[in-house]
């Protein structure tokens, strides 16, 4: 559809056929802009219901001119009603949007289907990203589907093996960078800025963000054409929270809703530069040089999209909170044992944050809250082995099962 690129700071506009990631004037991030007045005349939300639930159901609100998407049937993830969890938290309604159901097991697929499709439209033959894991897995899979080369930069020793194995099996060229994610991101920036034949698909790319906003459209429809009161999302590089906020604003621009949710971002305490800036009422986020957390997917000290994230939070009267690794692991366990949902630690950060905010009264008991679970638990199975004791080995010839499992006596 017709769109333009515009700098979020100085307002400079760019031709969407131009390969550009940040503003050439001031260096700030770009945003995809639509003419909503024109769109209202041709838009029919009823058409959405004729298509399968998923990212491309909402193609009228995606910046792709020729409709020939590179897709693995992403999106259409379930919105789980978590009654037992809500009861434990002292809240009436808690939903979990389970993004681990996407093809490569994380929300990144929403952005990648649009990003790779745009790359093909622009004639790219090579795509690249830096990643803590999920982006590399998604990029590798969608590049394989498109038949183009993928290059991923990862921080050596700081990526979950479940995610690394996906990038390997899909055939990506993997560069293990000595350092953390921020070092890997700088390396891929340097490579793509000096080689225009390589298309960058980190969240600094505004087209990838457009795909991620579709989670807002799905939640809106799954709740009966209404947004929730609160939307709680884990925050690492901060692209997702700003993307989801943009999705809800799209709905309002088109007259489909009058209300918008509060956007609540949750970071891990060891990697919480945005939470720190929010609580200190700062307008600029200060980088954390050595971020550390069990939640590897959000172990990022210099989030690229921090400005968009703070804008989303402040526009929506929301907030940003930080939670400890202990709180994250407790939330992961509760979600698995109370609701049967196995999510990676970063996903559980949203539940940990909800519990913390509910305790201090920042979430009203009767409000409708949706937590985003960004990735499947099998993305990082090692964390379970490291934090839970394996059951002891038993000899069933000498140890009766009844005593081992403490089974009740059989009543005759």
Q: Features of this protein?
A:
alpha/beta, Rossmann fold, 15 helices
Describe the overall structure.
- This protein is of the alpha/beta class and 412 residues long.
- The protein has helices spanning 36-42, 83-89, 108-121, 134-146, 161-169, 181-194, 206-212, 214-222, 239-253, 273-279, 306-315, 325-339, 345-359, 382-387, 401-405; strands at residues 4-7, 13-14, 30-33, 79-81, 93-98, 126-130, 149-155, 173-177, 198-200, 230-234, 262-268, 319-323, 368-373.
- The strands form three sheets. Strands 4-5-13-10-11-12 form a six-stranded mixed sheet, with helices on both faces. Strands 8-7-6-9 form a four-stranded parallel sheet, sandwiched between helices.
- Strand 10 (230-234), helix 9 (239-253) and strand 11 form a beta-alpha-beta unit.
- Helix 7 crosses helix 9 (239-253) and helix 12 crosses helix 13.
- 50% of the residues are buried.
Q: Count every beta strand, where a strand is a DSSP E run of 2 or more residues.
A: 13
Largest beta-sheet details: 6 strands, mixed
Structural class: alpha/beta
Approximate shape = globular
Summarize the helices and strands and which ones pair or pack.
Elements (H helix, E strand, L loop, with lengths): L3 E4 L5 E2 L15 E4 L2 H7 L36 E3 L1 H7 L3 E6 L9 H14 L4 E5 L3 H13 L2 E7 L5 H9 L3 E5 L3 H14 L3 E3 L5 H7 L1 H9 L7 E5 L4 H15 L8 E7 L4 H7 L26 H10 L3 E5 L1 H15 L5 H15 L8 E6 L8 H6 L13 H5 L7
Parallel strand pairs: 5-13, 6-7, 6-9, 7-8, 10-11, 10-13, 11-12
Antiparallel strand pairs: 1-2, 1-3, 4-5
Helix pairs in contact: 3-4, 3-7, 4-5, 7-9, 8-9, 9-11, 12-13
